[in-house]
Amino acid sequence: MPRAKRRETKEFMQGNAVIAHAARAAGATSFYGYPITPSTEVFETWVQLCGNPHKPALSPVTKERLSYLQCEDEMASGFALIGACLAGKKAFTATAGPGNILMQDAFSAAEALRIPTVAVIMQRGGLSTSTVIYSQEEVTLTCFGGNGEGFRVVYSPSSLQDLYTYTLKSFNTAWKYRYPTFLLGDGYLGKMSGEVTRYPMLKREYVTPEPILLGPARQKSLSTNLRNCYDQEEEINSIIEQYRSDYARDSKAIAESESYRTRDAHTILIAHGIVASAAKVAVDMLRSTSARVGLWRPITLRPLDVPSLVSAVGNARRIIYIESALGQMSRLINDALIAYSETGKSFDLPAVRSLYAPALGITPTEIVEQVLKKS
Amino acid sequence: MNKQPSNTDISLKIVLVGEGGQGIQTIAKILTRAAFQKRYHVSYLPNFGTEQRGGLSLAFVQLSRSPIISPKFKTADICLIVSNRDTGRSRRYIGPMTHVVYDSGIVEERGIRAFRTVTSNVVPINAFNTTSTQLSERSFNIALLGMLTGLIDVELQTDIIRLMDEKFAKYYLKDTGLKSLNHKAFDLGLTLTKHA
Amino acid sequence: MKTSNKQQRNRKETAPRTASLPVPSFPRCYKESSKPHKFCPGCGHPITLHEIGMVVDELGIQNKTAFLIDIGCSLLAWDFFDIDTTQTHHGRTVPTAVGFKRAMPDATVIAYLGDGGGYAIGTQHLVHATLRNDPITVIIINNLTYAMTGGQMAPTTIEKQPPTTTAPFDRTPDVFGTNLKGPELVLHLAMPGAFVARTAVDNPLHVRMTIKEALLHQQKNKAFSFVEVLSFCPTNWKTNAQETFAWMGAFKETYPLFKTITGTNS
Asked: Is the complex ipTM higher than 0.90?
C-alpha cells in the first residue's frame, strides 16, 4: 500500500468535517454553497479552514488562498461553482434533499458542458422536504437529475475513511475526465463522528486543473465558445453520442466496486453506502455460522463496475438488494444486468430478493434476519 | 445453521433518548471523544428532527476494542431515557439484555410500559428533580453526563471530566461559579447511578 | 459544444484603411465566421453587441474578457465574438460570472442577459450580486417582452404595450400587478460605489459610452456595475421602423435614462 509511506494522522472527527479536510488536501480552493441539514458542517468546517477572509489560509497543495461564498440559493451555488471551474479552480459544494433538487439545474448544465464540478450530497429523508436525518433516496436524483443522460460520476462512500479517500479522489476524477462528480453520502455518514486517518495527496496522483475559459487556448489566440443550447436535433444528438462513447470508454477506468467474500458465496448481498457497511458486518456474522454469503458493493453508482458485478453474481443462487430506499440502487443494477445480457453473453440472473427500508437505517442484525428468513 | 450468528466486534452500544436542548448530543460527543483518546474504537451518530429545541433527540454511541464498521445497531446494551416524548420509537433498540435507565421525574410510567414488555432491566432514577432541588435545573445535562459515566463499565471518568472542562472553559471564565457547579452536578449524576 | 476559431489577427493591417473608402466599423473582436448574425432584422441586440465589441477593442481586453450569456435571445450571441464565452439560462449567468470572477479576478467578466433572466426567474441573483457588490458587469436587455419564446409578458411589460400573448387584454395592474424597474431596484440595494445606468439602443453611442464606463468601473474600482439597455423588438412588438422608434421614445418615460455611482448614504 503506498499509503503507508504518507504522513498519516488518526483523528476523531465528524463525517462532514472529514470531507472539508479532504477537499483541502485534494487542492480545492473554494466552496460555493447554501446551508442545508445534514450537509451544513461541510460548509462550516470549510469556513473554519479558510480562516479570516481578510487574511485567508492558503491551500497546502496550490498555495492559493482558500475562499468561499454563501450564495443566495442552490442554483447560484451550483452555477458559481461552474464559474470557478471555468476559471480553472478546483471548487466544490455540498447540499441535500430539496437543495439537491434545485442544484440539479447547475449539475445538468455541468453535464452538458463537461464541467468538472464536485458536489457532496448528504441524503436526507426522501419525499420532498422530509426529515433531516437519513435515507438513500437521492440515488436517482444524483445519478440522473436534470434533463440529461447521467454522464456523471457518483461515488457512494461507506465509512468515514471512505469519505476522506473518495473526496480526495473526486477532484482528480472530475478534472481528469471532465464529468460532474458527486460524493453521495447520507445523514448518518455526515453527522456521525468516529476515527479517520488523514493523509496528504501524493504529487503523482494530483491532476492539475487549467482554465476552460481564458486558458491555454486563449493564449494561442483561439476563442472558446461554450453553449448548451442547440438549433437542430441532429446537432445535439451528435454531442450526446460523442458523450456516450466518451463515457463508455472512461467508465472502464472510473468504475469501482468491492467484492467481499463473494468467491464461493451462494447468496450475494448488494448494498451501497453506509448500508454496505452494515451488510459487511452481516456477512461476517453469517460466515461465522458457515453460511455462504458475500457482499458486492458498488463504490461508483455511476458508472457501475459491470464486469465485477457479473463475476460476483454470476455463480450465485440468489442476490439480495438492501437499501434505505424502494429500489433506487437495485434499478441501476437490474438495468446493468439486463444490458449485459443483451450483449449475448450467457448469463443466468439468480433469484432476487430485497430488503428495502426507505428512510430507515438498516442494522447488521436486520440483514442477518433477512438472509436467514425462509422465503 | 446451528450456531447463533453473533458479532463479537462490538463491546458497548448505548442509545440516549432525550430532547433538543438537554445536551444529549453534547454529552454523547464528550463520551465518545474521551473513549477515542483512551484508544477505543468509537462511533457516535446523532439522530434528531428539525427543531433546534424540544424535539426528540437520539444519540447512538459505540465503544469497542476492535474497529466499528456500522454506526447503527439493532439492540443497545444501555438505553438512557430522559424524554417523555418517546413512547415507543426507541423500543426498536431494546432487547431482553438491554439495561434501560429512565428519569422518573420526566418520563411517565405509561411511557416506559412498552420497554418493560421487552426487558426486565428497567431502572428509574430521579435525576431531574434531585438536580433541580440540590443544584439547579440548568445543571441537569451535566448530571446526565455523570449518570452516563456511571452507567458504563469503561473507566473514563477523569477523561470525561477533563473534556467537559475544556468544552466549558470559555464559560468558566465568564461565570466563576460554573466550574464547581458542573463538578457537583457530575458527581451527583454519578452518585445517583450508583445508588440505582 | 466547443468551437475554436483563429482570431482575426492582423485584421487591422489587412483591412482597407484608405480614408476614401467607406468601411463599416465592425469591431475587431467580432467572430467573422458567425456573421451574418442570427438576430431578427431591426433587433436591438446586435446594436448593443456591436457597442460592446467596440469597447472591448478600445480597452484592448479581448484576451481577458469572459462574456457570459443567458437563455432567450441573448444566447444567439454565443459565438458572436472572438471572445471566450459560455451560456447558461434563467439568470444563472450572474452567479456563473460571480464564481468566475472570484476565481480569476484579473478577467473582465460580463453577464449579458434579458429581462426575464434578470428580473423574473433569476431576480435573486441580481439582488444578491448587487448586495455583495460583486465586481462584475451585468448588462440586461430590456425589450419589454419575452422575445425568443414569442412575445409573452415580461416583468418590464407596461400596461398598454407591447402586446403580449399572455396578457392579450393589456397588462392591467389589477390583474397582473406592476412592472419592474431594474436599475432603480439595484440603486436601492447597492453598496456605495456601484455603477448603475440605463441606456437605450436608439442612441448607440450612448450605449457604448455607458458600457465603457461600466467595464472601466469593474476594472478600476473593483465594484459592481449594472447597465440596463432599453431595447426594441419589432418582431414581437409588431411595429414598423417608425413605430418602433416612437414606442421607444414613449417607453423612456417609464424607463428614464440615467447614470450614477451610488453614494455613501445608500
From this structure: yes
Any A CB within 8 A of B5 CB: yes
pLDDT of residue A36: 97
CATH class of the A2-205 domain in this structure: alpha beta
Determine the structural domain holding residue C56 and report its residue range: 38-257
Q: Percent of chain C beyond pLDDT 90?
A: 88
Would you state the cell numbers that stand for residue A111, as one nine-digit string? 453535464
Q: B135 — phi, psi (to 5°)?
A: -120, -95
Q: pLDDT tens digits, residue range C246-256?
A: 999 999 999 99
- Interface contact A159, partner C, CB < 8 A: no
Contact C102 A221 (CB under 8 A): no
Give residue B149's domain range.
Answer: 12-195
Nearest to B42 among A195, A278, A363 (CB): A195
pLDDT in tens, A120-169: 999 999 899 999 999 999 999 999 999 999 999 999 999 999 999 999 99
What is the CA C232 to chain-centroid distance, rounded? 12
Cα radius of gyration (chain C): 18
Whether C228 and C142 have beta carbons less than 8 Å apart is answered as yes
In this structure, what CATH number is given to the domain that contains residue B150?
3.40.920.10
C8 in any annotated domain: no
A109 and chain C: CB distance < 8 Å anywhere?
yes
Top CATH class of A257-372 equals alpha beta
Report the pLDDT averaged over residues B100-110: 91
Among residues A256, A271, A258, A370, the alpha carbon closest in space to that of A330 is found at: A271
Contact A76 C124 (CB under 8 A): yes
Locate the domains of chain A by residue range: 2-205, 257-372
Task: For residue A194, give the nearest of B9, B68, B74 by CB distance.
Answer: B68
Contacts of C102 in chain A (CB under 8 A): 30, 67, 69, 80, 83-84
Interface test with A, best of C33, C94, C104 (most A CBs within 10 A): C104
Q: What is the pLDDT of residue B109?
A: 86
Domain presence at residue C15: no
At a CB cut-off of 8 Å and minimum separation 6, what does B100 contact? B79, B81, B94, B112, B115, B119, B121, B122, B123
CB contacts of C126 in chain A (<8 Å) are none
